[in-house]
Amino acid sequence: MSAEQALQYCLAGVTVGSIYAIVAIGFNIIYNTTGIINFAQGEFVVLGAMTAISLHTVTPLPLAVAGAVAITAAAGGLIGAGLTRAVKRPTVLRLIIVTIGLSIVLRAAVLHIWDEKVRALPFFTGTEVSSVGFFGARITPQALWVLGICAVTVAGLTLFFRHTLTGRAMRACAANRTAAGLCGIPVGRMVTLSFTLSAAIGALAGCAISPVTQTQYDMGAPLAIKGFTVAILGGMGNSLAAVAAGLLLGVLESFSICIFPLAYQHAVSIAVLLAVLVFRPSGLFGSRDVSALKEH
Amino acid sequence: MLRILNLETGYGRLRVLKGVSLHVSSGEIVTLIGANGAGKSTLLSCVAGVVRPWAGEVVLNGRPITGLPPEQVVASGCSLSPEGRQVFGPMTVRENLLMGGYVRRGERGREETEAALEEVYGLFEVLRQRRDQLAGTLSGGEQQMLAIGRALMARPRLVMMDEPSLGIAPRVVQMIYETLPELKRRGMTLLLVEQNARAALRVADRGYVLETGQIVCEGDSEELLGNREVQRAYLGKDYRRIDE
Question: What are the chain B neighbours of A187 within 8 Å (beta carbons)?
Answer without folding.
Answer: 71
